[in-house]
Specification:
Helix content: over 70%
Structural class: mainly alpha
Order of helices and strands: HHHHHHHHHH
Radius of gyration: 19 Å
Largest sheet: none
């Protein structure tokens, strides 16, 4: 990598980190070209030398947040028995990540994306993320003949909708109001879905 490429990557990283900090701390409503540039310590015009707009930065942040979430899930489930137990633990850890970072949940599941090819890519990344996290374990279950491929497809859809809905109620409506009740309900519903 040339010196110029290293410098360019370093500048991009400053803006990406600034965007992530704003998104995690203040939410998407606080995000603007000026707020990102100010947080990064550069003029807003400099941002346009590296990115076409704020949406491009959000896309890069979505990928970074997914990587963070994946690392969190892997760490929380590393000692869990393979198969159904690991899928349940993965789904619970996935939800826990969003409870810790509700503004990331907002970006992933609440913020409306205008129709465009780039936003379709973001939407696909988000929609298939839980499936990606559980993919190895579901394949293990298929290999062990505890699930068919069709059952896996249906279960993934159900888990995706279930977890998103439970998180939406908890994060936006404070229902249930107690975190312990939230986790009990989450675990119970995930286990029921896995047993169908």
């Amino acid at each position: 990598m040339s010196r110029k490429e290293i410098q360019e990557q370093r500048m991009k990283d400053y803006f990406i980190q600034a965007t992530k900090e704003i998104l995690k701390g203040e939410g998407i409503q606080a995000l603007s070209v000026r707020s990102i540039a100010e947080k990064a310590g550069y003029s807003f015009a400099t941002l346009y030398n590296y990115f076409k707009d704020v949406k491009e930065l959000i896309f890069l942040c979505v990928k970074d947040f997914q990587q963070e979430c994946q690392e969190y899930v892997e760490d929380k489930t590393k000692d869990t028995e393979r198969g159904e137990k690991k899928i349940i633990a993965t789904a619970i850890s996935y939800a826990e990540y969003f409870v810790q970072y509700p503004s990331v949940f907002e970006i992933f599941f609440i913020e409306k994306l205008p129709n465009s090819a780039e936003n379709a890519r973001i939407s696909e990344l988000i929609s298939s993320f839980l499936e990606k996290l559980c993919q190895e374990e579901f394949q293990y279950c298929i290999d062990q003949k505890s699930f068919t491929a069709e059952e896996v497809r249906e279960t993934v859809k159900e888990l995706n909708c279930l977890i998103t809905g439970i998180l939406l109620l908890y994060l936006n409506r404070n229902y249930p109001s107690d975190y312990g009740d939230f986790t009990k309900n989450l675990k119970s519903q995930i286990e029921k879905t896995m047993k169908k």
